[in-house]
Batch of 3 targets.
Target 1
Amino acid sequence: MNSRQRRGVVLLLVSVLCALGAFAGVISVINDVNSKVGPEVTAYRLTADVTPYTALRPAQFKKVRIPKRWLSDSAVTDIAAVTGKIAVTQLKKGSLLQEDMIVDRPQLAAGEQEIAIMVDAATGVAGKITPGDLVNIFATFAGKAEKDPDESRIIVPGARVIDVGRLTPLDAREDDRRGTRREAVPITFALKTADAQRVAHAESFAENVRLALLAKGTPTTLRPGDSTYTLDEDKNR
């Protein structure tokens, strides 16, 4: 073997050693990345904003793969977890779903039924009444005859709220000269049949339906004379 051939063999050996060194470096980098990232798991990302107290559906989420070590312990990894749940706060598009973002939807007790009515946001319900709250439902009625006084009634004391819907714009009232834009919120209650009938009647025939939020622990039984009110009662005092 002459000197030229020897140099060729040496260069070939050096090239092989360099290739092996580069390969070992790549393997080392891959192993280092794997050690830092770890295995991936399934998570769920919101595809749109969700308002508080809205019932959740699997279609509102997109399945993604995230390294397990990057997820919090409260991250939801099974979409079945949203069944029967509602959003407890405003959920933003693109956020990863966490267990502390959702709560169980309140359930109906024996003999109860769901009934929903639209309540004017101007009465103060927007953002203040949440599922599980107790409210008094007020309705105001015009007098049947010209001389009859208008009357305010508590048609259902201590009604239990089980769902609060999305703020919805309504058409301006015909008698509103300014054409003020009105907004209402669908509120769902769990009521016995008789109370549900009272609410349905009031929504159809009352001048206004309002809600009054009760403090925790407030008695729901009214004292005699507290369920109705007319202006004449003040005039006679």
Target 2
Amino acid sequence: MEIRLGPVRAWMVCHPDLVHQVLMDPRTFDKGGPLYDRLRTLLGDGVGTCRHQAHRRQRRLLQPGFHKARIAGQTELMGEEVESVCREWRAGQEIDVSATMLTVSARVISRVLFSDSLDAAKAAEVHRCLVTIVRGLFLRTVVPVDAPFRVPTPANRRFRHASARLRAIVDTVIAERRRDTRARDDLLGVLLTAARSDDESAAITEPELRSQVLTLIFAGAETTSLCLASAFELLALHPEEEGRLHSEVDAVLAGGRPPGSDELPRLVHTRHVLTETLRHRPPGWLFTRVTTKETDLAGHRLARGATVLYSPYLLHHDPASFPDPDRFLPDRWLPGQAAAVPPGAMIPFAAGARKCIGDTFAMAEATVAIAYIARHWRLRHLPGHIERLRPAASLGPRDLVMVCEPRAQRPVGTPPRAPSLAPRATQTSGVHDPRTAGGDDVNYA
């Protein structure tokens, strides 16, 4: 259907088959439109924002950093960061789950990207910059003119300062690593090796180096933290699913340590919980593409340069693909049921050649985090909790505060207790409305 983004005409693709057509033909439907135009200004032409003709080369340069064997070797550091963040929790303490999950994901991506090159003070400043930038990004995405953002309002000044500081921090770390001759097995090391290559087809320029680092920081920190915060919010509203999760992690993580690469395949229900969270509340809920030539789509003739939008949120809540779509049902992802999902209906990481390069990494990190926390803690909503989803560049709870309770460990194989029939604090779940769904961050796909 045709919609308007200010003075710009755009086409909203709502059927899974058509979305699949768009995503599987990146030559015709290239990354572009208001979202990516703004992201390029902020991040440069990294692997998440570059045009089609540059993407294959950039992805090939980064791919060694995301091989499955390498990710398997990183599960220990993922567990270390989750354990470190949760170490200070106390029974009955109110935890800012949104901020805590961002801390976990930011620490993990910092170690994977920089090893020990980002000290605590710089890491904290990176987090602050990210929060400021992503809060201002959605408005810049939907307003197609720049004039309002040139006015020196406090919000615009904060956005510009945060953007400049983030780039400056990244430039400083890159410069320090160039001077440091010690070998480090991290993603920045992969990029620096490419930057020193004599092979022109494999070499990476200085602007590209910065763009890739900025892109990986954004993608690595935001999407996983939003998924985890959403998962804990939904689990607390569905105690039967929470109980099944607890039974599985009790059985698999008998020693109480974070899961390693050997335990991850055994956390089947845990992965179903995360997959259903990504269906129910995908962090990236709205994306744009731009046609590179005149083309037909669903019987409509689109001119070159036409803006095309698709929404994972709308697709994931289509009852034709997902019966009773507003219910949180991890069993949708049992093998027999998952096979019935139409192509293009479930796309939390996009699809095709532009599918998120870090999807396997993100799922491994989220599985480690939710399994370890659920093994030791139960997170409860505050009395009167209301699920609020606001329109912004990505979807997820921005200020979720919950109470942590230590779990009394049951013997392995003991079924969870039946939910108590005693009165509970009121927990009202907001109705999911695709017109108002959103958060305050940015996702890339």
Target 3
Amino acid sequence: MRTAPRLVAVVAATVALLAGCSSPTPQDEVLTDLGLDGLSGQEIVTRLDASSESRPLDFTASVREDEVLLGDGTTEVAVPLQDGEFYVSIAPFVDTTHECFFHSLATCQGELVEEPVDVTITTADGEVLVEESTTTHTNGFVGFWLPEDVEGTIEVRQGDRMGSVPFSTAEGSPTCVTTLRLA
């Protein structure tokens, strides 16, 4: 009966593998500690951008074109974003702004906090992707999930002030728009 030792070895290896899978990884612990475990990349981005906590937060969170990077100072976790969608976070301003390429959900702070704005996002061929009245978050930003690989214009109105900037959701494009001045 030579099959019994082989069967025992296979079962033991399977149990060891399953036990290893059930142990939390440092990446899992980061998401759990931040209260973000079980959330998709889109849910994490939306929740953190709309968070009412004052910036800077005590962790890192950066929106890239295809993932959100989260870190606790020792471990960084990459949570994928859904294919076909691209997040663009916009901080309209009147007087002050900051340079930004990849939106930091933990440190970016825009000038206009909890201010009503009207946002229109239109593709270069005239398709309206967004047309809504909204309010900037505590971090001074409003964010939108747009289709990948489009170009166009973002227009923001606030009262009698208006501004517009071009945008792109092609590979290598920024997820953070801080150049939209309202005048």
